[in-house]
Amino acid sequence: MIEIRDLKKVFHLGDVDVHALRGVNLSVTKSEFVAVIGPSGSGKSTLFHILGGLTPPTSGSVFIDGRDLLKMSDAQRTNLRKTGVGFVFQKYNLLPTLTARENIDIARDIAGRRNHAPDPWFQEVLKLLGIERRLNHKPRALSGGEQQRVAIARAIVNHPALLLADEPTGNLDTENSNAVLAVLRGLNERIGQTILMITHNPEAAAYAHRIVEMRDGRIVE
Amino acid sequence: MENLKHRPVRTFLSVIAIGVEVAMILTLVGLSHGMLQDLTRRSQGSGGDIFVRPPDSSLLSQSGKMPEGVVKKVRSIPHVTLATGTLIQPVSALEYITGINLDEFNALSGGFQYLEGGPLRQPDDILIDDVEARSKGLHAGDTIDLGRKWRVAGVVASGKLSRMFVDIRTLQHLYPPSGYISTIYVKADSAANIDPLFDALGQNLEAFKIYKMQELTSLYSVDNIPLLKPFTTVVIAIAAIVGFLMVFLSMYTAVLERTREIGILKALGASPGYILGALMRETVLLSIVGTLVGIALSFGTKWLMDTLAPTLPTAIVQDWWAIAGLIALGGAVIGAIYPGLKAARQDPIEALAYD
Asked: Could you give the CA distance from residue A121 to residue A154 in angstroms, rounded to a whole number?
């Protein structure tokens, strides 16, 4: 599913080169739920951005579902984000002017699937997320937990091979955190969604099948 | 659409700016068309079929005079039933008095319709039309100072050549050399003989400027008026630049405000074309609504002009609605291109980190 070999990422800040990733090796199998933990500056977010096609790697190899990210152009990485990966962010990142339903629909629209027939699978997902009755509300009328569940729905509406979650419970209280983590676990167990979650929180990481630790731009396991 | 509703003040200001741009264009075009239409209508209201101007004159200028004797020569030409000379005397930049022989002019035009007072009787009498009377708040019996005091003998219905009439002899005496006129209005004995008469006048009055009344509509067009077309072009360009700047600022601030939202769209896989397209759709919508507002505003400016400056008639020129709309749309789209490209090129990671 994900094969990362000797992945390096160097940022050029003026005359200074910052080595954010120094040779990451990681394999994630299909339907696996992996948590990546590590201190700030360990390279977690850079790994997240590379796997999500938001920034290109400097060297090494990164395969997602057989597609080599190192060889991808900007346009190909944009296409990867349409249907290959879905994002869940700490700050939910819903569009404030749209309702929950419209936030989900815009992801379908961008992927060119807006006019597709209703997706029974996705209706089941909405039930699992418990947000069917909140879809006509705008984000400001939703609790943090509800917003994050809408963000999860948006992330998987196009059936991505990989769901990337960056501190998905970072802005939530304990009750909502547990609910969101349970939803992620439920998605993984019921529909086999492959998930890679970045977190500082050991309790959140415990929901995953496997925990990998990053330090100084490398996986230390 | 939701973005426009979400930021009502900026949307409102953008629509108003585009509306003012469109209204500015439509008002200027309406003013030039209205004045030319009014000039045509009043000239044709003289009742003449043809008019003759001196050799050194132009169609619209009040300059140029010719000896009164030319009228006699015109009357001697076959098919002429009536010919009368008038004298145009400017009294300010936009105002002029027309000296007429009242009896001859009545015979030519069918006579004035008196709304107040009566005909010219004394040398210092003046007739004004109802538009002039309303503009200056004058009534029969009042005095009007046009470099010389005149007594308003009557208020007549507008549409007959001029807005102010005095006896031609008085005017010739006041503004020497005496015995000169500006224009001769000629009536043919039948409509069928207008063309032969026109040709005959041309042969007999070589070098004089001779015009047919029925051609006046095309002669009094924006294209034929010196400096009017460049003036109109300059004002339209200024209006378009104002619209362009407003949309540029509006879209630029919109892109800055929505940096994070653009980052979200990019994270979802939106291509630069998708983001540019979204901004362009907003711009087109703003332009369409702004154009409709501008058209509505142009009715308001016409009402204002008719109320405050009735001697400057403004027309509603429907043919220009689409043109003004396209000018506004063009300015707005150009104004949205840079902010749109800036949005489309944003780095998604930096945009997502923006607060």
From this structure: 14
Q: Rg (Cα) of chain B, in Å, rounded?
A: 29
* ipTM here: 0.90
Type of residue at A221: E
Alpha helices in chain B (DSSP H): 2-6, 8-44, 69-75, 102-109, 130-136, 168-174, 194-204, 216-219, 228-257, 259-267, 272-308, 319-344, 348-353
Counting one residue from chain A and one from chain B, the pairs whose CB atoms sit within 8 A come to 53
- What is the b/e burial string over B286-311, where b = at least 16 CB atoms within 10 angstroms of the residue's CB? bbbbbbbbbbebbeebbeebeeeebb
Inter-chain contact A49–B265, Cβ cutoff 8 Å? no
User: Would the CB atoms of A82 and B6 count as touching at under 8 Å?
Assistant: no
Dist CA A26 CA B52 (whole Å): 98
Sign of CA dihedral B48, B54, B58, B61: negative
DSSP string over B187-232: EESSGGGHHHHHHHHHHHSTTSEEEEGGGHHHHSSGGGSTTHHHHH
- Residues shown for chain A: 221
Residue with the bigger pLDDT between B205 and A95: it is A95
Distance of CA B178 to the CA centre of its chain: 34
**A97/B6 touch (CB, cutoff 8 Å), yes or no:** yes
Tens-place pLDDT, residues B106-153:
888 888 899 998 899 988 999 999 988 988 899 989 999 888 899 999
Tell me the pTM: 0.76
In this complex, the residue of A49, A78, A95 whose CB is nearest that of residue B264 is A95
